[in-house]
Amino acid sequence: MQQHTIAASIAQTGVGLHSGVNTQVRILPAEVGSGRYFVRVDLPNSPIIPAQVAAVSQTVLSTQLGKGEVSVRTVEHLLAALVGMGVDNARIEIDGPELPLLDGSARVWAESIATIGLLSQPVNDSELSPVIKEPIWIYEGDTFVAAIPSPETRFSYGIDFDLPTIGNQWHSWSLSADVGNSSTSFASEIAPARTFGLLHQIEHLQKSGLIKGGSLENALVCGPDGWLNPPLRFANEPVRHKILDLVGDLSLVGNIPSAHFLAYKASHNLHIQLAQRILDLGL
């Protein structure tokens, strides 16, 4: 068995979706077994925040990690890119409270990782990825997320919106055990899918102190007459982005178990509840 880290450092700068604050991120190679973790280099003693379920401090329209009074928000896109591109161990240095949204997707992260490549790190067989043996269901009303026994790691997602331009969408994508095949598939099928919002909700979100950094340059916006900023990268780009979010959130368990992860109209909160249930089962 092998783990992987990045072969060189990556740096990106941009504005955070909710904070509106510009931050710089540097991703550095990390030792085998160290996992993925954030370092707030703008604060005294550069506190470390592990990318683990136990560190989740908020799930309102994004996933936030914290340790004590220190936090880092909107981590899901970068974490999904690391997992999808096969990066097990990474030190993520950031000089502010929120990851840059970039273009609203994980494409920039995925392309950067593909450009520099990976380094293999041998590990013991005892560190094999866990396997889901019994179905796990988390649901609220008609929304749910589940993990179903499967020989492969697959993500299937469904969404349903009253706006006809979005409507009902489903998509399914497999995270291959082969790092090379998986990263190519992730980079082309999932990473480019951008975050999206509904026009009638924007004013309320802004008054609530959210999406201060949102714009038509970093998020798709849909109104009753269609998309305000077409064209889409995929006909079902919104639901593909939900898979991106789910992969990022489930990465907080460490090694994502072999299972078919199925979600419908779910949220970051439900994603994290499933991740916690997986850990509670000792997987």
The end-to-end distance, rounded to whole angstroms, is: 18 Å
Q: Which H/E pattern describes the elements?
A: EEEEEEEEHEHEEEEEHEHEEHEH
Q: Given the C-alpha coordinates, what overall shape results?
A: globular
Class derived from helix and strand content:
alpha+beta
Q: Roughly what percent helix? A: 10-25%
Would you tell me the overall average pLDDT?
95
Q: State Rg.
A: 18 Å
Q: Count the E strands.
A: 18
Widest beta sheet: strand line-up: 2-3-9-4-5
List the keywords.
globular, 18 strands, about 280 residues, 5-stranded mixed sheet, about 25% helix, alpha+beta
Mind explaining what this structure looks like?
- With 283 residues, the protein is an alpha+beta fold.
- 23% of the residues lie in helices and 31% in strands.
- It contains six helices and 18 strands.
- The strands form five sheets. The chain has a five-stranded mixed beta sheet, covered by helices on one side. Strands 11-12-18-13-14 form a five-stranded mixed beta sheet. It has a three-stranded antiparallel beta sheet with strand order 6-7-8, with no helix packed on it.
- The chain starts with a strand and ends with a helix.
- The model has no long low-confidence stretch (mean pLDDT 95).
Give a short overview.
The protein is an alpha+beta fold and 283 residues long. The chain has six helices and 18 strands. The radius of gyration is 18 Å and the shape is globular.
